Amino acid sequence: MKQGDFESSLALIEDLVKNDPENVRFLLLLSYINDMKGNYGKVADIIDKLLLLQPDNYIYLNNKGFNLIRQTRYKESISFSEKSIQENPVFSYSWNNLGFAKYKLGETDNAISNINKSIELDKSNAYAYKNKGIIYFEMGNKEEALKNFNLSLKFGYTEKYDNEVLHLLEQLRHPPGGV
User: Fold this and answer.
1) For the whole model, what pTM was predicted?
2) What is the SS3 assignment for 3-21?
3) What distance in Å separates the CA atoms of residue 54 and residue 141, rounded to the nearest whole number?
4) 93 in Cβ contact with 60 (< 8 Å)
5) 128 closest CA partner among 155, 110, 107, 105
6) What is the tens place of the pLDDT at every residue in 62-91?
């Protein structure tokens, strides 16, 4: 999609939301487009509207937690991930987000345990393997990092999300200032 098409799509969805502010599908689409553009503050506002409509929706709770992670507000994200897990304990993405937030707060053992729970619930969760790879990479365990990044690619991370794992693999293989 060309940038101009993207902007006109955004304008169209914004008009639809203005005319029907409680239409969940329009709100979700608007949230998705803003997330793709990196407008995480706008995404947060939209998710808050969705949570007003459905306060116990485990997907919206998870999305709020993930949005807070994107904003590096890790401590705040934990309560949303935990509430999402309380509402649906088998939704693997909430476990993954909880684990990554805990890692960013220095709770490495809990983080890996939560991400492993995510993988146990969904063995093809490419995002969980990516996050687990990041943890091992930052801990200096290149072998485990490589294994998890490769699993992330195997389960379609690049196709589903973006090229972040490819960039991480490049850093792993050729660290800046490395030999």
Assistant:
1) 0.87
2) HHHHHHHHHHHHHHHHHCC
3) 42
4) no
5) 155
6) 999 999 999 999 999 999 999 999 999 999
